[in-house]
Each structure stands twice: as C-alpha cells, then as structure tokens.
Amino acid sequence: MKSLEEIKKIREEKRAELDLRVNTASNSREKHILVCHGTGCTSSKSPKIIENLRRIIEEKNVENVRVVQTGCFGLCAKGPIVIIRPEDVFYSLVKPEDAEEIIEKHIIGGEIVERLLCKDVDNSVVKKLDDLSFYKKQKRIALKNCGVIDPENIDEYIAFDGYKALEKVLFEMSPDDVIKTITDSGLRGRGGAGFPTGKKWEFTKIAEGDQKYVVCNADEGDPGAFMDRSILEGDPHCVVEAMMIAGYTIGANKGYIYVRAEYPIAVHRFQIAIDQAREYGILGENIWGSGFSFDLEIRLGAGAFVCGEETALLESIEGRRGQPRLKPPFPANAGLFQKPTLINNVETYANITKIILNGADWYASIGTEGSKGTKVFALGGNVVNTGLVEVPMGTTLREIVFDIGGGIPNGRKFKAAQTGGPSGGCITEENIDTPIDYESLKAIGSMMGSGGLIVMDDSKCMVNLAKFYLGFTVDESCGKCTPCRVGTKRLLEILERITEGKGEEGDIEKLEKLSRNIKNASVCGLGQTAPNPVESTIKFFRHEYEEHIKEGKCRAGECKALMNLWIDPEKCKGCGLCKRNCPANCITGEVKQPHVIDTSKCIKCGTCITKCPFHAISNK
Amino acid sequence: MDEKRCEGCNGVDVELEEMLHKYKQDKSNLIQILNEVQEYYGYVPEKAQKAISEYLGIPMAEIYGVITFYARFTLKPKGKYHVAVCLGTACFVKGSEQILERAKSRLGIDIGETTKDGKYSLEATRCIGACGLAPVFTVNDEVYGKATVKMLDEILDKIDSEV
Ligand SMILES: Cc1cc2nc3c(=O)[nH]c(=O)nc-3n(C[C@H](O)[C@H](O)[C@H](O)COP(=O)(O)O)c2cc1C
Ligand code: SF4
Ligand code: SF4
Ligand code: SF4
Ligand code: FES
Ligand code: FES
Questions:
Q1: CA of A229 to the centre of ligand 5 (A)
Q2: Residue B75 within any structural domain of the chain
Q3: Which residues of B fall within a CB distance of 8 Å from A318?
Q4: Residues of B whose CB is below 8 A from A605
Q5: CA nearest A381 in B: which residue?
Q6: In sequence order, what are the residues at sequence separation of 6 or more whose Cβ sits closer than 8 angstroms to the Cβ of residue A580?
Q7: Would you say residue A467 lies in a domain?
Q8: Which residues have any ligand 4 atom within 6 Å of their CB?
Q9: Mutation test residue for ligand 4: of A570, A572, A597, the one with most atoms within 8 Å of CB
Q10: Is the Cβ–Cβ distance between A201 and A321 less than 8 Å?
Q11: Which atom, in ligand 4's list, is nearest to the CA of A615?
C-alpha cells in the first residue's frame, strides 16, 4: 500500500531519473537501451536480444547503462528495434548476435554502429527515430507511453503523469465535471461505431441500478489490426486508470476487460498491471481515502469475432456462447448480468487520462470538425513501412500510405486500401486525398472501423478480396438469424463461382440485391455490415467483376482457376529469381536468357509473380 | 491440497483439479476454465468436460455448445507439430493462402485435421498480432515472419529429417 503522498514522491523521483527517455538534451551519465518487446519484435527474437545485452553488461561490468523492455515502437517491419537514449539512436533489424557490438562499440566506445542504422525509404541512412519519415507526420496521444516506458513497471508509468488524472478526478472533479470534459473534448468511440463517449458515460451514469460495471472491449477482432494489442502491451496502466475514472464517473466499483486469448503478451502485461496497482493500493477499497473503491478482472475471449460486438461480448463474459442480444435495451441500461454497463474500446480509454490532464479544449483543437483527436491505424499489406501509426484525424490516406508508409514496394502501383476490416469498404486512388474522419469515410462508402488499414497493390484481385472477407464472415456468423447465416453463405457461393471462372450473367445484380437484404434484415452489426466489402468492390471495380464473368479473366492473376502464367520475354532479364523460388521446379531458362514456365506442372502458387523484380510474369 | 477432494473432481487428474479450483464455482468462469484446459492439453478432453460440468453445475450439452462456438477450443488432440498459417487480412494480402495450400498438399491434410501418425496438425488462424511481419505462420510456439512457400518447405524438410 502506498499513500497518495508516496505516489507523488515516486512520480517526482522517477521522472527525474527517466528524463533521458524523453529529453535528447539530457546530460545524464546513464544510457538506456530500449528494446521492443511487442508481439512483432518478440517473434523475431527480441527477448534473446535483451538477454544477451544484460549478460554482456554483467560480464564486462559496464556501468551506467540499463536495458529496458518496452512496447511496440510502431515500425514493426524493421524489427527487432533497439533505441538508445538519451541520444535517440535507432537501430533496426537487430539480431541477438548484435548485442556485443552494441555494448562494445556504442555504450563503451561511444560510437554509432553504422550497419544497424535504419535506411529510410529514400535510402538515406537515418540515425534518430524522429528523423525517420515514418514518424514525422504522427502524433502520439493514445500511444504516448508505448516505446517509452517499461510496461511491467508501475513506477515508470507513474513517472510520466501516471495515475495523476485519477487523482485529479477523485479529489477535484464531480462525475458531472468528468462527463462535461469528455463531452467537450469531442472524443468518439474508437471501436468502430464512433459513438460520442461523453454521451455514453452520461447514459450509464443516469441509469438506475444497485450495481454497475465498466467493461473494456479488447477483443480486437478485425484480422490484421493490432492497435489495441499494442496499447495493452506497451502501456497497460493507462487503460486501468481510465477504467477507474469511468467507474468513478458512472458509479461502478467493478470492471472487466475482455481480451483475446490469442494475445498472450497483452494478457500477461495487463495482469501484471492489475497486480501492481492492487499492491500500491490504487485498485481496491477506499482508494487514497477518497471513498471510491474499484477492482478489475480479465476475461479471455476464445476466437469468436462476433464477441467484439458489445452484447455478444457480455454474453461471453457471463460464460455463454457469444450470441448478440437484441437492442434495446442497451448495455447502458441492461448490460452485464443485466446491470447498467459502460463498454468502451481500448483506444477510447487510452485517450481519457490525457483529456483529463490537458483539458477538453486541447483535445478538441486536434482533428476535424466532427472527429477530434487522433486515430491509431495498423498499417499492413502492400506498403513499405508496415506497422502502427497514430495520426491526427483529418490526415489523408495519401499521407498515411505514401509519407508515413513509404509507398508501395516492388515498384508496384497503389490499387486500393481497406479500412474497417470485414465490415468496411475500399478506398481507391480517386478518393485517396479524403481526410480521414468518421463522416468523410462513410461518405465514400468505407468506414473508420477500429483502425485496420490494409493497402493493396495492382497484383491484388478485388473479387478475390471480397471473397476473402465473405469467407471470414461466413465462418464468424453466430448463426442466430437467417439473413446473416444463410445470406452470407449465398454471397460467398456466388463469389466463389466468379473467381473460379464460372460466373454467370446477372451475378453482379444478384450480389447487389442479396447484400441489401442482408443489411436490412440482420440482427447485429456483423450481418448488417457483412456485405460492405462486396458492395464497395462492386462500386469501384465493377469492371473486374465483369472481366471475370464475361472474359474468364483475372487481371491481377490472383484467381487460380483463371491463372495461366507466362513470362514476357521482352521484360525477362533472366535473373533466375523465379526459378529459384518456384516450389514446383517448373521454370527453366539459362542465366540472362528469357525464362519459361511449364504450365502443365505449375501449381499456380503465384510465388514467381511476387518474386520477379521486373514484373515480367503475368496472366495471359 | 489439504482439503478433501471435491466431489466433482473424484477420479480426475490432479492438474485438472488444480485448474478448476483456481476458479470460483461460478458459471461465468466456464470460458476461463476452458481456455486453461485447452492450453494445458492442447484440446478439451471429455474427462475435462465432465469435471467442469460437475464443478460449475452446467449440463454437458451446454458445455459442448460453448466449446463448438469458440474457434479456439478443439475436441481433438493436436499433432506433435502444430502448423498454423495466418489467414488474417494482412497475411492474406501478402500471399499466406499460398503457404496454406502448400502446407495442405505437403501434409496431405485439411484445416483442422491431424495426420494419421499424429505428427502434424494444421490450422488456419486469424491474426496472431504479428501483422507487421506478414505473412506469418507458426510451428508450435515458433513464429516465422516474412514467410514464403520455400521457407515452409525448408522447415518441414528439417522436421522430417530429424526422425
Ligand atoms: C461484429 C462486430 C465486431 C466488433 N468488434 C469490435 C472489436 O473488436 N473491438 C471493439 O472495440 N469494438 C468492436 N465492435 C464495436 C462494439 O460493439 C462497441 O461498439 C464498442 O466496443 C464500443 O466502444 P467505443 O464506443 O469505445 O468504440 C464490434 C461490433 C460489431 C458489430
Ligand atoms: S447478424 Fe449474424 S452474427 Fe449477428 S446475430 Fe445475426 S447471425 Fe449472429
Ligand atoms: S506459380 Fe508457383 S508453381 Fe507456377 S511457375 Fe510460378 S512459382 Fe512455379
Ligand atoms: S524473376 Fe523475372 S526477370 Fe528474373 S528470370 Fe524470372 S521472369 Fe525473368
Ligand atoms: S512490435 Fe516491435 S516495433 Fe512493433
Ligand atoms: S494478419 Fe497475420 S498476423 Fe495479423
């Protein structure tokens, strides 16, 4: 147990000690080696890097250096990432064997290890994180502490204003003050629907009930999205603190966070955060003598996308099949165990403490008219810098894909980007300058969604993409209502036929009609949005559907049944890359001579298309 | 454990009993317990279903309904080498389908199946959160990022040569 005075003392002392983390001008004698311990870098062996660094430091008795594990830095494609502070030197693609040189040369010798520096998209060598074009247009609010603090150390969180917003709320603000601040900030839900957060808090506050609950939705079902995971892995306490503030505001003393079991690191870190907060007396009874009590529990999801839908999530927390409930009543009135319940997304919570501390006006000054603050996106697909980015609302897709993302790799062309995952739609070249906010994205037939942002180049077939998303929905439909259960299957069957070259005249119209029916008649958001990828690809790429149906042609070369590859002898330079990578060994040719594919043996895996540096391989 | 064994746990493994007793006898703990059992055994064996049913007072049919609803729970044991190819959007766009096809044809099994000798099982997962390294596949706990069909071949070759 720590008193409020003790917490304040920790904050002061730790903040001074950790100043070098955020102040490049710090004249501290100490150096901190920050190693990314997010899921991406962990799977490319960053724990081993940490182990090696620590071992070598001990063996060589190096002083004034500390190895710190942090959350995701965002540029996962270049991981594992190691950053040395205060000088802010950024090392990328680090291997466990590099630990020795980092210690010897950089820490002891004071010289930069040039070969580990990161190359920017223009091929220039960059020394500091802030100099990378990837970071230049970003603004970190929700991710503020990610990559700065050790997420498993509550003192480091406290050092950077941690639990200060809670203190302010408990001792200086009434619940109505909090609601007014959140409302005035303009914050809207980051889980997808964009409902005004202040309003939701107000509804739950005025709802009558002897017991209320605060729930955090960390199910993050959109495949290819990892914003919430990164926040939980990199800064779990900011979610704990925000849930407590929410509890105080709506009158709840108990919270649940529902996390995907597929995120073991996030679950582990969040549990540590809960344990540490309990140990410090931050979670518990009569916190700091304020009279407010709060406790928090983790509940695991088990791989059902529909459980991200708020009422299905509640069913799942209660231990049942995650089938959505009919609304109304809304969770604010009858939620978990039929009690008034506030449900917000992880990223929504991650904004709360900053709004309380910096004020509603500050937050409302960022973003656009109707969408305030920032949005975190998981940038993936055919883009150079895959990773996690946080940008002010109103940033354009072009800025995200080209300035931050570094554009499309392998000299290919941008074709489309999908936001909103399986519920969303695609954005094409013609709309690439649309500012990203809730309304603008809706207006062009897509949606904000939770933050998945998948970029596709011209080797991607949009019919196949629609089929992919529908395959996902069919798997994930909970089966409760017929339009969704049966309708999405029908959509998928038609799409399968088209991609197999068996499309029929009138199929496009059938898809359109069926889509409308499913949207109108489904019970929950899953069914209501499932046809979006179909509708949006038809809207922007109708000609590709028609080519598949009428000409039996897939211009992208992705649809296997329509695949008939050949190597253009004019373009082939005879480099042999395709041959070396062909798993069926069906490409022949001499060095510097045009190569040929034996189509009778080709298993249509498509590897050669992506491997050829000269784009010589295509569909006949 | 000092206390006398709980009735529902009579005759079950000690590990299972310990897993159950970590949780209160509250129906809402069903999914928590199933997750733990799945993690420990690699599937949810029938004996565990029975024990959970008694411990939480939930009918077997309902437990079965929950197990089959959630993709993470399986009723069959996995192979010694569990190959899981990510079919999340980020991986799909980077060509993970080709890796999955290759795994299917090499192992001669479909998604969700185990080879007759129990050596391999195959799964298609939805995003394991390493999207920055897409496409991604895993063999047991090892994650392979920026994967190719060749890479899968090499890893399976290596496992095969280890016999
Ligand atoms: C099919 C479906 C899946 C959803 N998945 C998620 C999810 O993974 N994470 C999330 O925060 N919200 C998800 N939502 C939205 C939630 O229902 C809910 O609106 C949200 O958690 C509210 O929090 P917010 O107001 O902070 O955004 C999903 C909705 C639907 C219909
Ligand atoms: S729309 Fe689909 S996911 Fe939603 S309740 Fe109906 S069947 Fe279930
Ligand atoms: S598609 Fe695959 S099998 Fe066919 S030629 Fe290309 S690499 Fe070889
Ligand atoms: S990779 Fe392209 S250029 Fe090289 S041999 Fe193959 S087809 Fe020719
Ligand atoms: S996981 Fe390391 S930078 Fe994202
Ligand atoms: S989509 Fe494959 S790891 Fe996320």
A1: 11
A2: no
A3: 27-28
A4: 98, 101-102, 149
A5: B90
A6: none
A7: yes
A8: A 567, 572-578, 595, 611-612, 614, 616-617
A9: A572
A10: no
A11: 2
Residue A372 has what DSSP assignment? B
Verify whether the Cβ–Cβ distance B95 to A606 is below 8 Å.
yes
CB-count burial class (<10 Å; 0-12, 13-18, 19+) for A596: middle
Among B20, B46, B69, identify where a domain stops.
B69
- Distance CA(A83)–CA(A450), nearest Å, equals 29
Task: Tell me how crowded residue A13 is: count the other CB atoms within 10 A of its CB.
Answer: 13
Alpha carbon A606 to its chain centroid, in Å, reads: 28
Between the CA of A311 and the centroid of ligand 2 the distance, in Å, is 11
> Kind of pairing, strands A425-428 and A414-419?
antiparallel
CA distance A427 to A419: 8
Residue B74 located in a structural domain = no
Question: What does the block give as tokens for B107?
Answer: 């192992």
**Residue A540 belongs to a domain:** yes
**Is the domain of B47 the same as that of B87?**
no
Residue B3 has pLDDT above 50, yes or no: no
Question: A380 lies in which domain range?
Answer: 374-433+446-457
- Indicate the top mutation candidate among A572, A577, A608 to test ligand 3's pocket, ranked by most ligand atoms within 8 A of CB: A608
Confidence of residue A620 (pLDDT cuts 50, 70, 90): confident
User: Considering only CB atoms, which chain A residues are within 8 Å of B145?
Assistant: 40, 43-44
Residue A269 burial (C-beta neighbours within 10 Å; 0-12, 13-18, 19+)? buried
pLDDT-based confidence at residue A349 (cuts at 50, 70, 90): very high
Task: Determine the structural domain holding residue B24 and report its residue range.
Answer: 2-69
Instruction: Give the mean pLDDT of A32-58.
Output: 95
Domain boundary among B14, B37, B69: B69
- For the CA of A78, the closest atom of ligand 5 is 3
